[in-house]
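May I ask you to comment on the folded chain given beneath this request?
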Amino acid sequence: MATKNGLGRVPAIPMAARHMSYWDMFATWVGANANNGTWYIGGVIAACGFLTASTTLIISGIVSYLLLAAASYMGYKTGLTAMTLTRASFGLRGSLLPSVINLVQFIGWAAVNTFIAATSMSFLFHDLFGWATYGQPGGTMGLAVGIIVMSIFHLLSISLGQRSVQLIERVGIVLVFVFVIWESIVVFKTVSFHQILTWQPPHNLKMTPGAAIDVLAAFNLAWVTAASDFSRFTGVKKNATQASFLGANLGLFWFAFIGLIATIGTAITLNRFDPNNSDPSTIASKLGLGFLAMIVIILTSTTANAVNLMSAGSALTNMTRRLSLTVSLWVVTLIATAVTFLPIFLASFLDIFTAFLDGIGMVLGPEIGIFLVDYFWLHRRQYDVSDFNKVRGQYWYQGGINWIAILVWGVSVACYIGLKHVAFIADTIGATFVVILLSMVLYWLLMKLSQKRA
């Protein structure tokens, strides 16, 4: 509901209304990562070889989800959504910037998962009706029908809001565990671990460790900006921080590793590596997993997109301040459906996916650095919630915008672009985490200087 100043009431969840258990939070974040997109990421970084891909996967996951735990703590302490919290660092009106970023990225992730699930549906339609699978002549029809069907599933899944997310995650996590165990058995019946360990991609397709870190960071950091949307529903600190950290890492490691192993195993079996065939549907088909595997892939897309769409809807609500969360969820789901069709007309799915990841890494890192430093160091974990919709309050800054945050974000994005062209950084440690650290230091320094002058 809008207030007289048009900024909207702050939707803080009181402690008495928080009912998410440790298991609910853990399952939410396992389900967020135990899905098609994570499998696909594992397949993409297979271009590094197993050892390099494994090392970068573990390091990136631990670092990224320590940031997730910190952001989850913010939601637990305040009861506020992630984008509402950015009003304190970016300003009441300046929070439009991170809200737009979140809206775009989570619609994008919903589209990615939908596309992969729709690809699985095209294989099902082939088995049921004899339609061509996606990638074959005439296969676009099956994919298009799959996108529409998946979007209907998503509309149903978000219709009950947070309760539907919890229900979907509880059911989905069991299916995920069964599927991954099954997939692991099939892969290791086909090739040995020694073959996977020693396999190397063709030189012209090889990915550097720095490039892999940036790809993984972009994938992992997306959840950091959604952490508070879920941790605000628990009244226990451990549920918000520890459960989020462990659940997100378990989902990432388990599914990315199976995507990595399955992609390498398929490359060894076929004696040919094609990163365009890293999606779970193609690999599951080539490994002969059949009908049931496709069903599970489709269902896990719904578990992941329950989180994606909830976060996109929260961002839209913070931007408009007039739409209810339910209406926002319907709007972002319909937009995501339209976006899912883009790879059919513009380029290959892999090309669009990698470009999407690069864009996410560029804009998300600085945003995360800024809002974490603002809460933990500048405000020492104390925000005045009553000022989050107050014109000329402490978070109003200049005309509702903290121009220091905007400046630091812009400079950091420029530095990311520049570092991507510095081979020593881009090929070894990547630009993303360097830029996050840079944004933290720069924001802290400039804010301290401005406070002294005031």
